[in-house]
Amino acid sequence: MKPAAFDYVAPGTVDEAVAALAGAGERASILAGGQSLILEMHYRRARPDLVVDINGVRGLDRLRVDGGALHVGALVRHEAFDAFDAFESPLVAPGPLGRLLSLVVVNIAHPPIRALGTMAGSLAWAHPAAEWCAVAVTLDADVELRGPGGTRTVGAGDYFHGPHRTARLPQEMITAVRLPLLDDVTGVAFAEHRRTHASFAQLAAVVTLTVLDGVITEARVGLANAADRPVRAHAAERSLVGSSPLDDDLFGRAGRIAAEHDADPVARPYADVEYQRQVVTVLVGRALRQAYADHGGARR
Asked: Per residue in 126-143, pLDDT tens?
């Protein structure tokens, strides 16, 4: 099939883009990378009356450190994080946040997709399996939205409402995602399971782990595709904080807790609920061990 008829506009500023969205009501779509939108339009699962192409909007391709956070503009492509250890800001790379983003990005589709797709677009599409969505929730990222009423910020924990449903209003666009920088003593890890190399994540785990004087002082565990939206594994995190990482079963136990108390999978044709909970157990335990090893490497 081919897309249904639509109008097209290519604004040069954020204000022009917002005005176009406001004029089209709820039947407008934003085009940045287009890696999901174009396919949906091709199969006519998406039928926007207006496509607002923001690729010419000035300033949205900036990646900078500002106020203790990495500011990722709406047009920053996935591939910007492929070799993030070489990024020019010494505040980010080769620090923990840079390492984490580099670990995650190679799991996103394949190079042609990474050359065009954007982090902001991933959050706008809000697929439960999307890696960047899980990273945003795990790190308590902020999503910056601009609409006719001005700019507002929504925390990632409140932003996702379900598959392809978010706090973003039809007249708003994401202008940036802000990821907090991580302490130098924080270890990071990412573990993913997929059916084939090019498949969406069947399940994935994002972990940050801070250990001081032999005790875990902070743990963040996020899950992708383990529910109808990315989730923080709060129960698993609570089981870790205050414990010694030298406890032989600590990380395995946290994985089991995440699977039983934090994940909320639904049966799929290729994976029943029991299988998915087992995968969560393995991935969380594996990522925690990797984060602890990364923490040791960071300290050395």
From this structure: 999 999 999 999 999 999
